[in-house]
Amino acid sequence: MTALRVPTVLLAMVMIVGCQARAVDNEQVPPETRITIRFSHVVAENTPKGIAARRFADLVSERSAGHIEVQVFPNSSLYADGEEFQALLDDKIQLIAPSTSLVADLVPEWQILDLPFLFADAGQVSPSMAGPLGRRLLALLEPTGMVGLGFWEGGFRQMTNSRRALRLPDDFRGLRMRYQASPVRRQQFELLGARPVRGTFADLYRLLEQGEADGQENSLSNIESKRLFEVQRYLTVSSHSYLGYVVLADHDWWNGLAKADRDVLAGALAETADWLRANAPQIETDALDAIRASGNVLTHTLTPEERAIWRATIDPIYRDLDGWLPRDLAEIVRAISTSQL
Ligand code: LMR
Residues 230, 309, 201, CA angle at the centre, nearest 5°? Predict the structure, then answer.
């Protein structure tokens, strides 16, 4: 029997037309070749991180023509803060994007990013994370068995509480303030005269509603989307510390993926990081407008003079740096922070 000979040019045309017509639809990818990635995070879908996770999932689906499916689980619906690390290492989930404060539980050097007033503004964050600071922090993850695939910017933390307007350190006296994980955050509240209370993000509304904490610090989009403004009377727009995220995977799982798949994921993560850098500030501004419009909260924006007093009050944190940081990292921190004093 003679084999049917299709001219090469015709075959190429059929392949091109075939590719164009191919729908990006998971149903058309045989299940045995599809990679499913469960991406867990703790915040609401309409926050910078929540929107970024969805955009990332869509980009990956499109770029891999449905070969890789990213399923996003927001709002601590699978795991709360802290539980996510073990779930990742156990391969129950494949990607997480915890706030960098949580990573400080495993790698103390990550507390650098919790230092109050480290970055003057969002413009200073990205060059620092793309430079020696970001590279050193990612390298320090190695013993944890996790790999950091990139930084996602969230915004800055602002103070809220149910008792009084926070203008000067004296206003913090005796307030129970919820903090997230890192000892630097605890120390910040102690120096300001408050009593720190550790709690997960999933439990935060309850802590505030039931009066187990008087206040907390968070991004405006977290305050708005989790409706914390319903149980807080005062908001100080202080932008006193950075709130950013790191996208993490289990090291062995990541390295077991085909290079082409890793490239699709890494490309989509980087593109999403760019999108966040450009869009997170507007999402935060919109959240502030929504909080103000609720009429529930009295807002104060820290003046430059008040900011200088807060900074002077927490200065012992900076004087302690050599006690817990290797010299090169302490020097990087001093260079970033003194550039704005
Ligand atoms: C928190 O304070 O727990 C949040 O900032 C968590 C998050 O991921 O944004």
Answer: 30
Ligand 1 atom 5, closest CA: 218
Q: Which bin fits 141, alpha (ψ -120 to 50), beta or left (φ > 0)?
A: alpha
218 Cα: distance to centroid of ligand 1 (angstroms): 7
What are the tens digits of pLDDT across the range 43-100?
A: 999 999 999 999 999 999 999 999 999 999 999 999 998 899 999 999 999 999 999 9
CA distance 268 to 288: 29
What letter represents residue 255's amino acid?
Answer: N
Q: What domains are defined for the chain?
A: 8-281+292-338 (3.40.190.170)
Which tokens go with 267?
């490309």
Q: Whose CA is nearest to atom 1 of ligand 1?
A: 201
- pTM of the model as a whole: 0.89
Q: What separation in Å is there between the alpha carbon of 167 and the centre of ligand 1?
A: 23
Torsion sign over Cα 89, 94, 95, 99: negative
The number of angstroms, rounded, from the C-alpha of 338 to the middle of its chain's C-alpha atoms is 25
For residue 217, give the ligand 1 atom closest to its CA.
Answer: 2
Q: Which of 336, 324, 278, 321 is nearest to 132 (CA)?
A: 336
Contact (Cβ atoms closer than 8 angstroms) between residue 185 and residue 164 = no
